[in-house]
Amino acid sequence: MDIFVIEDDLQFRSYFMDLLHTIHDPFLFPKWNIQAVTRIFSIEELEIKDDTLFFLDIDLKSSITGIDIGMEIRKRNSKCYIIYLTSFANFGRNMINANIYPAAYLLKTPNKDILASELLASLTSIQRDIQTKQKK
Q1: Which fold has domain 2-135?
Q2: How far apart are the first and last CA of the chain?
Q3: What is the phi/psi pair of residue 105, to 5°?
Q4: What's the predicted TM-score (pTM) here?
Q5: How many H-runs (helices) and E-runs (strands) does the chain carry?
Q6: Which of these, 119, 128, 101, lies nearest to 17 by C-alpha position?
Q7: What dihedral angle (degrees, nearest 10) is formed by the CA atoms of 57, 25, 21, 82?
Q8: Which superkingdom, per the lineage (predicted)?
Q9: Mean pLDDT across the chain, nearest whole number?
Q10: Tens digit of pLDDT for each residue in 76-124?
């Protein structure tokens, strides 16, 4: 599974990627390839498979937002997984209106236990979905 993290805050990106490595369960997710995408305009260069997972910051402090990137990802693959990371709890309607349908919406929090718990629950749900699709 390819996992791409698109987050402009270097400190949070490092914290979040460390958290991903910490909670990685090789039995639940045998093959993880985690990458930070630092050039948001290079999204066209990525191979997006049905089991690819994106973690997108909504507010990228750029002319392009995480919602814009989510719409582009959906144009290229409607089955991949998107989890939004944000400090703002009020962007859900924007994603629904843009037909992005993220797998989850996680609020950034300095409380590592809370974020790890929510992240693990989201990843477990995604893994179940992938396994169900593979059985069909």
Answers
A1: Rossmann fold (3.40.50)
A2: 19
A3: -140, 105
A4: 0.90
A5: 4, 5
A6: 119
A7: -10
A8: Bacteria
A9: 87
A10: 999 999 999 988 766 655 555 567 788 988 988 888 899 999 999 999 9
Q: Which residue has the tokens 């997972």?
A: 53
Domain boundaries of the chain, sorted by first residue: 2-135
| β-bridge pairing 33-36 and 81-86 | unpaired
Signed CA dihedral, 46, 79, 77, 96: sign only: negative
Q: Using CA atoms, how far apart are residues 107 and 45, in angstroms rounded to an integer?
A: 28
Q: How far apart are CA 114 and CA 26, in angstroms?
A: 21
| pLDDT at residue 92, as a whole number | 59
Residue 94 forms beta bridges with which residues?
A: none
- Evaluate whether 114 touches 20 at the Cβ level (below 8 Å): no
